[in-house]
Amino acid sequence: MNSGATHFLRKFKPGSPAIIALFIQFATLGFITLLLFVLWQTAHVKWTLNQALLSHAVLTLLMTRWFRLAWWWCLIQPLFPFAMVLALWWSLPPYVYLSLFLFLLVFYWSTYRTQVPYFPSTPDAWRAVDQLLPQNRSISFMDIGSGMGGLVIYLADQRPDCRFTGVEIAPLPWLCSYLRKGGQSGNARFLRSNYEQTDFSEFDVIFAYLSPAAMSGLWRKAKNEMRAGSILISYEFPVDGVEEDLSIYPENYTRNQRKLFVWYL
Ligand SMILES: C[S@@+](CC[C@H](N)C(=O)[O-])C[C@H]1O[C@@H](n2cnc3c(N)ncnc32)[C@H](O)[C@@H]1O
């Protein structure tokens, strides 16, 4: 890979493939527009809309490969120029786009950076996590990235003797969890915060359902901050190169089985 692209990747990765994808879209759009302008000015050559769109899509695909984004970016990136023309053709009122943008903003917030979107764990997983909690003493538990709060609310009902905290960075899921619990009541609370800025040493058990991109950073933070005797649980995603102490399949499905990975620190 050329040194410019390498430098760019070093600067932005691993946090932001979405920003690289956006950069590619703007760069190719700028290049195609300039090319059309120069062709028209110098040779009076005019492209049709289809020719321009196709060139934009092919160039976008090549750049996406060149920047070595994940394979699925190669599938969706060339579609954006066509989607843009389709959106113009529909002529929807601007408030539709603004509303959609604002909804996605408060729902996903910084997913473009964290690479951890919202998707919920299952009640089977919640029951299995409940079984993993120490039974003979009161503990303090945190779900990092608590989404709509399902796990924390379930566990708080099962274990009134323990304290449960959900930390969620995105405003809308956090608000849903906060309202579901009726504010900061009982033994469950929901904080709108970045878990990277919370102190893991205050908790006996930490649960994570994040994404492969977050796991090595999470492991480093857990090793540095969690107390001896505490427990880290990850649903679906292992830590590369770190053997778990225990793994279980909480669901009874025959396909798409997801594991709970457990480390006793
Ligand atoms: C896969 S969902 C898991 C939801 C919930 N824990 C569950 O089991 O149903 C991951 C959640 O983590 C949140 N998240 C991602 N990065 C975060 C961060 N740095 N701090 C707090 N929350 C984060 C996302 O907004 C998303 O709601």
In this entry the ligands are: S-adenosylmethionine
The top-level CATH class of the largest domain is Alpha Beta
Total DSSP helices: 11
What name does CATH use for the topology of the largest domain?
Rossmann fold
Number of domains: 2
The proportion of residues in beta strands is: 5-15%
Which H/E pattern describes the elements? Answer: HHHHHHHHEHEHEEHEEE
Overall pLDDT, averaged?
Answer: 91
Radius of gyration: 23 Å
- Our measurement of the CA-to-CA distance between the termini, rounded to an integer number of angstroms, reads 41 Å
Largest sheet: 7 strands, mixed
User: CATH superfamily assignment of the largest domain?
Assistant: Vaccinia Virus protein VP39
Helix and strand composition category: alpha/beta
CATH architecture field of the largest domain: 3-Layer(aba) Sandwich
- Relative helix content: 40-55%
Number of strands: 7
Segments where pLDDT lies below 50 for 5+ residues? none
Shape, per Cα inertia axes: elongated
Strand order of the largest sheet: 3-2-1-4-5-7-6
What would your notes on this structure say?
This protein is an alpha/beta fold. The chain folds into 2 domains: 3-91, no CATH class; 123-264, Vaccinia Virus protein VP39 (Rossmann fold). The protein is 51% helix and 12% strand. The protein has 11 helices and 7 strands. Strands 3-2-1-4-5-7-6 form a 7-stranded mixed sheet. The two termini are 41 Å apart. The relative contact order is 0.09. Bound molecules: S-adenosylmethionine. Residues 114, 116, 118-121, 143-147, 150-151, 167-170, 173, 194-196, 209-210 line the site of S-adenosylmethionine (SAM).
